[in-house]
Amino acid sequence: MTTPPMVSIRDFRLVRQTRGGTLLVLDDVSFDVADREFVAIVGPSGCGKTTLLKSIDGLIPRTSGEIAVNGTVVDRPGPDRGFVFQMDSLFPWRTVLANIRLGLEARSGDRATKNRTARDLAALVGLQGFEDHYPHQLSGGMRQRVNVARALAVDPQVLLMDEPFSSLDAQTREVLQEELLRIWSERSKTVIFVTHQIDEAAYLADRVIVLSARPGRVRASIPIELPRPRTLELKRTPEFIAIVDRIWQEIELNDSGRAARDADETQEARVNHA
């Protein structure tokens, strides 16, 4: 018996209205994400990676097609999905504990239980002892740890992450990559992770989805057949470098195709103007 996917995207299409008319952002996007799978999405700037992630969360409505999470069609945000934004988006007047507890406050249950859950999550992300600190007292990496803990607090089935480490320095970024893999392993969540960093995608994911230049379409689905658990030393192996090169080749084909398309559009505009 085949296990149904945790996330299913079928013939997804998204059109936006702009001052200049309509803009086709994503077109004919179809792929599945298995339960507890870690999938990274990469592609050229402007190809719709973040837009697709927000559509999975229910923040941006589709034009056509379908997105389903655990068999339920997505038409709005829900507690089965947790979203980690690019910026930490913490409330500055709340402590670490209060920020983590935020998603629990709308749920039934006593305050002591919610505080205990928040403290457990603070420990999970390596912030034990910082529960009473405010965001301005934390480093960028620590704030993102709070952000991840807050998303996990509602116990979502799917964790959606939009370039969560992009604003961090290289050393902190690598530390948090390792921490994320540890948390993912312990919590057994399905993760969809958007990034511009190809080595980050290859290091974290079970599979990398490459989107084409706008309109974003699935150009490739590349399995990352590297053993787990993974350590940072893996990034220096020939096997890892070969996978990164393969993903880069897909990105470069995207860029060359986009350049050709832009040249054609420019030439067409000149002809029409003449």
From TrEMBL:
Pfam family, one: ABC_tran
PROSITE patterns per UniProt: ABC_TRANSPORTER_1 (PS00211), ABC_TRANSPORTER_2 (PS50893)
Keywords: ATP-binding, Nucleotide-binding, Transport
Segments forming domain ABC transporter: 9-238
UniProt-listed InterPro entries: AAA+_ATPase (IPR003593), ABC_transporter-like_ATP-bd (IPR003439), ABC_transporter-like_CS (IPR017871), ABC_transporter_ATP-bind (IPR050166), P-loop_NTPase (IPR027417)
Keyword NAD among record annotations: no
Molecular-function GO terms, alphabetical: ATP binding; ATP hydrolysis activity
Name recorded for this polypeptide: ABC transporter ATP-binding protein
